[in-house]
Amino acid sequence: MTKAYIIGNNTIIKKKEYAEYAAKVPQTLKKYNGRFLARGGDTVTLDGEPTGNRNVIIEFPSFEMAKAWYFSKEYQEVVHKRLHNADGYLLIAEGINDGE
Asked: Could you tell me which of 50, 49, 45, 67 has the C-alpha nearest to residue 58?
């Protein structure tokens, strides 16, 4: 099974409200076997212009599990806190097979 990754890039506008969102997300991942690979932290831009200043990468066992998490009741109950308190995006990227 090919893994999938939720990749997010955001600029936080309202820190307190965004922090409420960030505190709730880890619990929503458990049922979908998602795990953070990167969550904030320092970055170095190697080329191009980033649109945000906070980066997140979440690994899932499959593309289907990543989609199931995003559209889950658990995550949909908190996603509005990201959408209203940060500018940016989330996307799902399909991983590669180990043999490729």
From this structure: 67
pLDDT tens column, 79-96: 999 999 999 999 999 999
Report how far residue 3's alpha carbon sits from residue 32's, in angstroms, rounded to the nearest whole number. Answer: 12
Rg (CA), the chain: 14
Domain spanning 4-42+51-94: which CATH class is it, in words? alpha beta
To which H or E segment does residue 93 belong? strand 86-94
Domain segments of the chain as ranges: 4-42+51-94
Residue with tokens 């043999």: 99
Contacts 24+ apart (CB under 8 A), 70-74: 70/6, 72/28, 72/31, 72/32, 74/27, 74/28, 74/31
pLDDT in tens, 40-79: 988 888 999 888 889 999 999 999 999 999 999 999 999 9
